[in-house]
Specification:
heterodimer, A: mainly alpha, two-stranded antiparallel ribbon, 2 strands, elongated, B: mainly alpha, globular
Chain lengths: 103, 680
């Protein structure tokens, strides 16, 4: 828990405030990029599964590995990146509203 | 008032002790089994102890407070909400049928693994944080508030409620059916009594404590599900690879399984068995072509056969019985014969096919057949993902976290806990397949393992597993084994040679999976009726006390209705679960996502989107699903009815956008609401 607190402090020290408009802009961009990644790993990878099948990864046929495990790990990574980046953006947004009230 | 952090610590303590207690319970049962306690008693103990536990949590968490009842007081920490949502998510279908599907369908079965996890990316990115910020009680609440306008907001609300109820009801019937199946198989009690026993525990829990009791029960259930799913697979993995981490180790079994598949495919004895099925299929084909004469001839033959046997003084009673049974089972009319023989022909043709390769994507006899498989795979993944992101009983759970950030974090935990199970599913399917291909295939027909007899005798009419020595060589061929996918998980402990208490644990896990999902679904339905219909539409002045009471009564009614529907044993209901996903994707997904990301979306658009998405999806299913009298000939681009959402979703989006652009934009209040939910 203390780790998180120090991380919070570090973030507040270095972060610059962000207006609601900029925050929404950033949210949309991040969402779009991650959705693009989601689309590519899901639909493009499966579309070319027959071609990928020839590739072997430590004994696993690549397309089977991706569908059974690899793609799921990418999904988890997408959610992790989103949660962390949004947390950071959210702090900057709150910094902005604090300043507004402070002034 | 304790802080969130203290609350989290207190909860972690409770569940740590609970887990320790559960492990002790397992150890005690292991000792009891060793001391000679009969199998039936172990089954009873598992069932009653776990059901009593869930009911106990329900009693402890009883409440009549509105926020507590509907959204667990909005203080469920992300980690625990993730666990509860995972239990809510992992249904009887996942726990029992998913590995079996992979075993039987090979690569195609992975569409479920991908679809049911990738949907959470959409939940995280597009829906959960915004719903939490909105912070009401149901999905209909959000849609009604967002799409207010010329007509009363209740119009959108009612549409959303109808969609919620149709989706959740098909789903809950399948869960209760699963409860009946597991209890009757493991304790020998009657199917319908099993249903009502399970129902009792669901009711005590959700009736007394609503969302609050359900949340804490689901966390407990998740822990049981995890143990039940992982222990047998870890054991199998240690047995075949000497590495007890099945998710990593099964990679080393894959080449060996491929080799076994090739060896079996080239075995002349297998070809013999396949030829027998092919001959049978051709036989039925001949009879079908000669209808109705072949039907008449067959009936007369069967009658002659009986008379002959009766005249023969050496015939045993069993022979006479089987001959008269054959006559009673004989089709009553030529139409019935056509139907039955068509099924039999298809069945024998399927059995004559060589087994599918486990890892090869989209095997087909030519490029076109393979492309159709690929397109269906993609369509199914699409529908399952968008359906996941629009299932009301899942989305509702993200109202229960303390903040928007916790909601985002809790989607992560949900996906994490679901993944722990889903990443193990292919490992289980492949390890069991390897075990069967190497130790059952080629073994002596006179000495089949015990589990085959045990599972064959549970349902004698439609045996879950049957092995017949068709070519009379006293050796088991793969083609001679008929296996129902549903027993793969339930029989794994016995296949792996584990003691019986592990079988009991797996049954308890399946029960927990079915009960936890049923809990969440029933609450969703009764909330839709009590909160959205009764409180928001019929009587907006109702006191909080009255609202909660009405909700509890409705819960009882819905639960009994669902149990009644399940007791009719609608065989196709399990495939209907898949249909629920297409329906959710087509009706609710466009309205939810555009409601958040497109300010211009208005009430007329939402109504048009929900209605046309629904109509499109239902139309396609009715025309292509044999259960509703449709045929495969009506399919567009050879897409199976389960993926009707692939057409429903674009229609829903298009209708929503066009109708919105043709009508005036939403008012100031709505725009302010959108800005509000976009800012955490």
């Amino acid at each position: 828990m203390t780790e998180q607190n120090s991380a919070t402090n570090a973030a507040t020290h270095t972060a610059t405030p962000m207006t609601p408009a900029a925050y929404w802009d950033k949210t949309r961009r991040l969402t779009l990029v991650l959705l693009g990644l989601w689309f590519v790993v899901t639909f493009v990878a499966v579309f070319f599964a027959r071609q990928l099948d020839r590739v072997n990864l430590f004994g696993w046929p690549l397309s089977f590995y991706m569908a059974a495990q690899g793609i799921m790990l990418v999904y988890l990574a997408i959610v992790v990146v989103y949660t962390i980046r949004m947390r950071r953006a959210e702090r900057r947004l709150h910094l902005h509203s604090e300043q507004m009230h402070g002034d | 008032m304790e802080t969130n952090k203290q609350f989290f610590r207190r909860l972690s303590g409770y569940y740590a002790w609970y887990t320790v207690g559960f492990i002790l319970f397992l150890l005690v049962l292991a000792v009891l089994e060793h001391e000679g306690m009969p199998r039936a008693w172990i089954g009873y103990l598992f069932m009653f102890v776990t059901i009593a536990l869930y009911a106990g949590i329900g009693v402890v968490c009883r409440t009549s407070d509105v926020p507590e009842y509907y959204v667990a007081g909005r203080r469920v920490p992300a980690l625990f909400n993730g666990m509860a949502t995972a239990a809510d998510w992992i249904s009887a279908a996942t726990f029992i049928s998913l590995a079996g599907g992979l075993y039987l369908q090979g690569f195609d079965g992975l569409a479920y693994i991908m679809g049911w996890t990738g949907g959470y990316c959409l939940v995280a990115l597009l829906i959960a944080p915004y719903l939490r910020k909105f912070g009401q009680y149901t999905i209909a609440d959000f849609l009604a508030e967002r799409y207010s306008g010329r007509y009363s907001g209740n119009l959108v609300r009612i549409l959303a409620v109808i969609a919620t109820i149709i989706i959740s009801f098909t789903y809950v019937v399948a869960q209760i059916y699963g409860v009946g199946l597991i209890t009757s198989r493991f304790t020998g009690i009657d199917f319908s009594i099993g249903i009502f026993l399970g129902l009792a525990s669901i009711l005590v829990c959700s009736f007394l404590g609503g969302m609050r009791a359900i949340t804490w029960t689901q966390v407990a259930q998740y822990i049981i599900i995890l143990f039940a799913y992982l222990i047998p697979v870890i054991w199998l993995s240690a047995k075949h690879t000497s590495v007890p981490v099945p998710q990593v180790a099964y990679g080393s079994v894959l080449p060996k399984l491929n080799a076994a598949e090739k060896r079996i495919a080239a075995d002349p004895k297998e070809k013999e068995v396949s030829a027998i099925f092919q001959a049978r299929a051709e036989d039925f084909d001949k009879k079908l072509k000669n209808l109705p004469r072949s039907w008449e001839d067959g009936r007369i033959d069967a009658q002659h056969h009986i008379e002959e046997i009766k005249r023969d003084s050496h015939a045993s009673l069993a022979e006479i019985k089987s001959a008269s049974r054959a006559l009673t089972a004989y089709p009553k009319t030529a139409e019935e014969a056509e139907h039955k023989w068509n099924d039999a022909k298809a069945y024998n043709q399927a059995r004559a096919q060589p087994p599918v390769s486990q890892t090869e994507p989209f095997p087909g006899k030519d490029q076109e057949a393979s492309d159709i498989k690929r397109n269906n795979f993609l369509a199914l993944v699409f529908c399952l993902m968008l359906g996941t992101a629009a299932l009301p009983h899942i989305l509702m759970r993200y109202y229960t976290t303390p903040t928007v950030h916790e909601a985002r974090k809790s989607v992560f935990w949900t996906l994490f806990f679901i993944m722990l199970i889903y990443i193990t599913v292919p490992a289980l399917a492949i390890l069991v397949k390897y075990d069967i291909y190497t130790s059952l295939v080629g073994s002596d027909y006179a000495h089949l393992p015990d589990w085959v007899y045990y599972w064959a005798n549970i349902d004698k009419v439609n045996p879950l597993v049957s092995i017949t020595d068709l070519n009379h060589d006293n050796v088991v061929q793969l083609g001679e084994i008929a296996l129902d996918g549903d027993i793969i998980v339930l029989a794994t402990p016995e296949i792996a040679g584990l003691p019986y208490f592990i079988s009991g644990l797996v049954a308890a896990g399946g029960l927990a999976a079915a009960l936890s999902t049923a809990d969440g679904l029933l609450l969703t339905i009764s909330n839709a009726l009590s909160h959205d219909v009764y409180y928001k539409v019929i009587d907006p002045t109702a006191s909080t006390q009255k609202r909660v009471t009405i909700s509890k009564l409705l819960l009882l009614v819905v639960a009994l209705l669902a149990a009644y529907a399940a007791s009719l044993k609608p065989g196709d209901i399990l495939s209907m679960v898949g249909v629920a996903f297409s329906l959710a994707a087509s009706t609710l997904f466009p309205a939810l996502v555009l409601g958040i990301f497109w300010k211009r979306a208005n009430q007329a658009g939402a109504i048009a989107g929900i209605v046309s998405g629904f109509v499109m999806c239902v139309y396609y299913m009715l025309h292509t699903h044999p259960y509703f009298g449709g045929t495969a000939a009506n399919q567009w681009f050879h897409i199976a009815p389960i993926s009707a959402g692939i057409f429903g979703v674009p229609v829903g989006f298009t209708a929503l956008i066009i109708a919105s652009l043709l009508t005036p934009p939403p008012d100031e209040r709505t725009l302010a609401l959108i800005d509000h939910i976009r800012t955490p």
